[in-house]
């Protein structure tokens, strides 16, 4: 079992953020904190898809380049990208060059625009918030999927989204602060209910 670890600064954190660097910075300032707006949701959906099979630090280190090449995750702009843009992105060394994930980003941008006719991406994702959020004390108690992430995955696929499997959607829910993902005892852990 692995509970929170005490860093050299004397602060208790989730084990993956124990040492200084980009992962700790992300843990302390962003992971599990609620964000708002379509672009913020599309960005995190995109980054979680690109992270699949890679380390999260790799994605964080390329994040600014992702933001640049995907126009700040403006859904209309990215949704209008064509094969020429895919080719350009495949030649871009500052991002992860995976054709399927790049094409999925374009697909998801178009699906995000289509969701505007209904509740919009943010409200749609939030509608899958768990009634009883997890409260793990150790990494052994953590899961990588939930009934809600399975339902969100199915819901987004029905809306035309790609690369939105249940594990990726669980990570998305953690990242967006749909529930507090921090271990009990971590200095970032709140009451488990994040409002807003």
UniProtKB/TrEMBL annotation:
Positions that bind Zn(2+): 14, 27, 182, 186
GO molecular function, one term: metal ion binding
GO biological process: base-excision repair
Gene3D superfamilies named among the record's database cross-references: Hypothetical protein, domain 2
UniProt cross-references to InterPro entries, sorted A to Z: Adenine_glyco, DNA-3mA_glycosylase, DNA_glycosylase
Record has Kinase as a keyword: no
Keywords linked to the UniProt accession: Metal-binding, Zinc
SUPFAM superfamilies according to UniProt: DNA-glycosylase
Protein origin, superkingdom: Bacteria
Pfam families: Adenine_glyco
Protein name: DNA-3-methyladenine glycosylase I
Protein's organism: Nocardioides luti
Source organism phylogeny: Bacteria, Bacillati, Actinomycetota, Actinomycetes, Propionibacteriales
């Amino acid at each position: 079992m692995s509970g929170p670890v005490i860093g050299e600064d004397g602060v208790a954190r989730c084990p993956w953020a124990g040492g200084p660097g980009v992962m700790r910075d992300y843990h302390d300032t962003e992971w599990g904190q609620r964000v708002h707006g379509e672009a913020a949701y599309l960005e995190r959906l995109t980054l979680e898809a690109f992270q699949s099979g890679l380390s999260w630090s790799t994605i964080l280190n390329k994040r600014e380049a992702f933001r640049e090449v995907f126009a700040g995750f403006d859904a209309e702009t990215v949704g209008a990208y064509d094969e020429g843009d895919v080719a350009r992105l495949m030649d871009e060394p500052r991002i992860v060059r995976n054709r399927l994930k790049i094409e999925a980003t374009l697909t998801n941008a178009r699906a995000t625009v289509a969701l505007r006719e209904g509740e919009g991406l943010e409200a749609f994702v939030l509608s899958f918030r768990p009634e009883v959020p997890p409260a793990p004390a150790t990494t052994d108690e953590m899961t990588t999927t939930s009934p809600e992430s399975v339902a969100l995955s199915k819901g987004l696929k029905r809306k035309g989204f790609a690369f939105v499997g249940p594990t990726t959607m669980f990570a998305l829910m953690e990242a967006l602060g749909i529930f507090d993902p921090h271990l009990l005892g971590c200095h970032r852990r709140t009451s488990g209910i994040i409002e807003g």
